[in-house]
UniProtKB/TrEMBL annotation:
It is an enzyme of class 2 (transferase). Residues 103-220 form the Transketolase C-terminal domain. One of its GO terms (molecular function) is 1-deoxy-D-xylulose-5-phosphate synthase activity. It holds the Pfam family Transket_pyr. This is 1-deoxy-D-xylulose-5-phosphate synthase. The keyword Transferase applies. InterPro entries: PDH/Transketolase, THDP-binding, Transketo_C/PFOR_II, Transketolase-like_Pyr-bd, Transketolase_C. Its EC number is 2.2.1.7. Keywords: Transferase.
Length: 231
């Protein structure tokens, strides 16, 4: 589901010189208290396909507010993946600054690389804590801007690791996992990639913890998949 938060519509609204049109998806993925008909797992791919559109998936309230403030000055269509329900504040408002296209290193380390976006970045931090407890070296990159994507920063991060796990509250088709795979394959070679997210199927209904367990998106299972490189 989407709500319009800006001005401008019709022909030209998605052009570089068109009016500002900010749209927010307020029931993204499975991170909402609604039933299965309130799950939105196709939005990122659809918005990515729109020429000149800007697509952003913030990870917490700090990120979201900064994104909205920045989007006011962006021309054309901007799609922001919103939040709903209890969303923890993980980024410090006094230190965080949003820049369109920029990626953010949340954890630095060698070994395994984790690339996440939106609510998936929250989940990745949970899995990161478990990996740390297990003594598994890793790093974590938050990618809020899905389009226009910073291919260079993602490629530099990916090729610095032999193994990558992508994490998102979105289906693994046409989302962040697909985006990272596209960037790596265009260069050639590169790390093993494990895409973690929703399957290309209707998710079950229930509480968020229940759905995450059913889909293998709970922190323990994600840590196992990231560490093991299992598909």
């Amino acid at each position: 589901m989407m709500i319009c938060m800006g001005t401008g519509s019709g022909p030209g609204s998605n052009q570089d010189t068109g009016p500002t049109n900010i749209t927010s998806g307020f029931t993204p993925g499975i991170a909402n208290p609604g039933r299965i008909h309130h799950q939105t797992a196709e939005d990122l791919g659809m918005e990515r396909a729109i020429p000149n559109a800007t697509v952003i998936a913030p990870m917490d309230p700090t990120d979201f507010r900064a994104v909205v403030e920045a989007a006011v000055d962006l021309p054309g269509l901007t799609y922001i993946r919103g939040h709903r329900g209890d969303t923890p504040r993980l980024l410090d408002p006094k230190k965080f600054t949003f820049e369109l296209g920029r990626t953010y290193t949340l954890k630095e380390g060698s070994g395994i690389g984790i690339i996440a976006t939106g609510h998936g970045s929250q989940w990745a931090l949970e899995a990161s804590d478990i990996l740390k407890e297990r003594g598994i070296a890793h790093s974590l990159l938050h990618v809020p801007t899905i389009k226009p994507v910073n291919e260079a920063e993602i490629a530099d991060f990916a090729f610095a690791h032999n193994q990558i796990g992508t994490v998102e509250d979105y289906q693994i088709v046409t989302g962040l996992g697909s985006l990272v795979a596209e960037i790596v394959s265009d260069i050639g070679g590169g790390p093993w990639i494990t895409r973690i997210g929703l399957p290309n199927a209707w998710a079950p209904g229930g509480t968020l913890p229940y759905i995450r367990r059913q889909l293998g998106l709970d922190a323990d299972t994600m840590a196992d998949r990231i560490a093991g490189g299992m598909v």
